[in-house]
Amino acid sequence: MNELRFYLNRLRSYGGMRLYAQLAAMVALGLFDGIGIYMLAPMLGLLGLIGDGAGGTGSLPFAGETLAALRELPANLALPVLLAAYVLIMTLQSLLQRAQSIRGTRLQQGFIRHLRLTLYASLMRSDWIFFLRRRRSDFHHLLTSELARVSQATYLFLQLASSVAFTVIQIGIAFWLSAKLTAVVLVSGAAIAVVMRRKIRRAKEVGNRTSELSQQYYAGLTDHFNGIKDIKSNRLEDSYLGWFRGLTGRMEANFIAFARLQATTSSLYKISSAALIALFVYLAVEALHVGAGELLLIVVLFARLWPRFAQIQSNAEQIGSAIPAFRSLRELERECADARESGADETGARAEGLDVKAGIECRHVYFKYGGDADAEYALRDVCLRIPAGKTTAIVGKSGAGKSTLVDLLMGLLEPERGSVLIDGLPVTGERRLALRHAVSYVAQEPFLFHESIRDNLLAVRPDAREAELWEALRFSASEEFVRRLPEGLDTVVGDRGVRLSGGERQRLVLARAILRKPSILVLDEATSALDTDNEARIQEAIDRLKGKMTIIVIAHRLSTIRGADQVVVIEQGEAIVREDGRVSALDGTSAEGVVEWPAGAR
Ligand SMILES: Nc1ncnc2c1ncn2[C@@H]1O[C@H](COP(=O)(O)OP(=O)(O)OP(=O)(O)O)[C@@H](O)[C@H]1O
């Protein structure tokens, strides 16, 4: 319930006066409705269906006076005047209802957008380690399915508030008409509400299962479509179909359980309302000797009110079932707040990129991924210096810690002990973000957005001119193949660029990296998917960048590190500098060539 209160407070601070205006409109709607019903009394009196004295309009506040005023009018005008007043009140009520429903939707949608934006922005500002520890599919799940449930529950809460306001007003009117009869109905209603509370608890349980199942659904789908090639090539379709069948079966059963719960409550309400009306009429006539006018109005009031009780119960059950979604969303927001990158700017203003003058240095850097004391260190006591304007190659066996080192050098990860310094100053807070503005990173698995090549390039530098785009493409040996594409720069590359070959994607990502004119260029096996020809061309281009920027290359191939000014070998989390300055084994395979290790590089 704390979660619901938290989001209601958020709704209050988001909606402000609009929310209060909305609630006021709900109260007014209840009043209009009550007046509409109350007008039945003088109408029936005028038609002679109920008497004027006690037990008729005489026992109803204002009804007798209204009837007397109407009788003052010429006989043929009284009924049309009363009916016109009734139509006017109902028209006003409908117009108010219309405005209230549009405003309600506007408020609800605005609030959801506000939640979406806040969550998306907090995710974007969370640090890298946060993303390493969470499943990506959980973010999809929370930003789509869970947020939709929160959205629906917020809307239902407004509906609930409206039903409660309506009910309170109508009960007030009923009390005014007959306190005794209303008390009988309310005592019975309270007894039913106590019984129905169990149903709300049950709805919460079903809601928990809904959250779990839909999380599994999203996670599974994301995994399977990411690994669809493995599934197809290893003929695993049937086993995944089996998983899908099982999970969707449980989802279906869960949904039916909720529908059953709702249908049961609704029928219980109907049965109890019939029993109550019977008891009510019996008591009214036999025990309380209530007059026909009073009885008629109260029956009409409660006949309209009873479905509201049922609606309040149904809304409460649905809100109860959405509580787990509120909880997951709140938890994610808390985790994002804890993982917020220091120096992340609320306004999204871009920090100036750092210009590395002397170099980057690691001083006794230790890093481990797990938070536990006994988790293994991925890097231990790493000391090294990456001189500015030079090319540094990082080599080592798979799992040695090369990517971890590069992530630390780019400011994506923070050392557990020791420090990373740029030009002698530690990389912390805003300097970490500024460092990342200065870095262009080309990953081992090149990533392209499902947009045109032009848009993919402009994403990193929106002001780049056409000539600069082609220059970057030429640099990465992509010009030729892009010119051959039917729509050239405007060709849309498929989902994650799958319509291009691995090598073509790598070259486009390289062009994008260069277009940014970074101060530090990081290439993580960036030429691994290229043939010898293209690799040689890119190698030459990278060689031409020497002196213009600091280049860090993670490499397995000897050809990649041949042109490096310095080579860092990572072995089981330690950076090893061989005294003879020569590297002779890469990734477990004996390399034939050796790379000179400049003196004093450490
Ligand atoms: N997200 C993570 N969570 C936990 N451990 C991790 C994570 N990423 C890497 N590691 C561990 O840290 C160590 C170093 O991994 P890293 O990815 O830096 O190696 P690498 O040299 O880049 O390997 P490769 O050449 O295969 O990419 C490995 O033991 C790896 O299992």
Automatic annotation (TrEMBL):
<keyword id="KW-1003">Cell membrane</keyword>
<feature type="transmembrane region" description="Helical">
    <location>
        <begin position="20"/>
        <end position="41"/>
    </location>
</feature>
<dbReference type="GO" id="GO:0140359">
    <property type="term" value="F:ABC-type transporter activity"/>
</dbReference>
<keyword id="KW-0813">Transport</keyword>
<keyword id="KW-0067">ATP-binding</keyword>
<keyword id="KW-0788">Thiol protease</keyword>
<dbReference type="InterPro" id="IPR003593">
    <property type="entry name" value="AAA+_ATPase"/>
</dbReference>
<keyword id="KW-0378">Hydrolase</keyword>
<feature type="transmembrane region" description="Helical">
    <location>
        <begin position="179"/>
        <end position="196"/>
    </location>
</feature>
<dbReference type="Pfam" id="PF00664">
    <property type="entry name" value="ABC_membrane"/>
</dbReference>
<dbReference type="InterPro" id="IPR011527">
    <property type="entry name" value="ABC1_TM_dom"/>
</dbReference>
<dbReference type="Pfam" id="PF00005">
    <property type="entry name" value="ABC_tran"/>
</dbReference>
<feature type="domain" description="ABC transmembrane type-1">
    <location>
        <begin position="23"/>
        <end position="321"/>
    </location>
</feature>
<feature type="transmembrane region" description="Helical">
    <location>
        <begin position="77"/>
        <end position="96"/>
    </location>
</feature>
<dbReference type="InterPro" id="IPR036640">
    <property type="entry name" value="ABC1_TM_sf"/>
</dbReference>
<dbReference type="GO" id="GO:0034040">
    <property type="term" value="F:ATPase-coupled lipid transmembrane transporter activity"/>
</dbReference>
<dbReference type="InterPro" id="IPR027417">
    <property type="entry name" value="P-loop_NTPase"/>
</dbReference>
<feature type="domain" description="ABC transporter">
    <location>
        <begin position="360"/>
        <end position="597"/>
    </location>
</feature>
<dbReference type="GO" id="GO:0005524">
    <property type="term" value="F:ATP binding"/>
</dbReference>
<keyword id="KW-1133">Transmembrane helix</keyword>
<dbReference type="InterPro" id="IPR017871">
    <property type="entry name" value="ABC_transporter-like_CS"/>
</dbReference>
<keyword id="KW-0547">Nucleotide-binding</keyword>
<dbReference type="GO" id="GO:0008234">
    <property type="term" value="F:cysteine-type peptidase activity"/>
</dbReference>
<keyword id="KW-0812">Transmembrane</keyword>
<dbReference type="GO" id="GO:0005886">
    <property type="term" value="C:plasma membrane"/>
</dbReference>
<feature type="transmembrane region" description="Helical">
    <location>
        <begin position="153"/>
        <end position="173"/>
    </location>
</feature>
<keyword id="KW-0645">Protease</keyword>
<protein>
    <submittedName>
        <fullName>ABC transporter ATP-binding protein/permease</fullName>
    </submittedName>
</protein>
<dbReference type="InterPro" id="IPR003439">
    <property type="entry name" value="ABC_transporter-like_ATP-bd"/>
</dbReference>
<keyword id="KW-0472">Membrane</keyword>
<dbReference type="InterPro" id="IPR039421">
    <property type="entry name" value="Type_1_exporter"/>
</dbReference>
<dbReference type="GO" id="GO:0016887">
    <property type="term" value="F:ATP hydrolysis activity"/>
</dbReference>
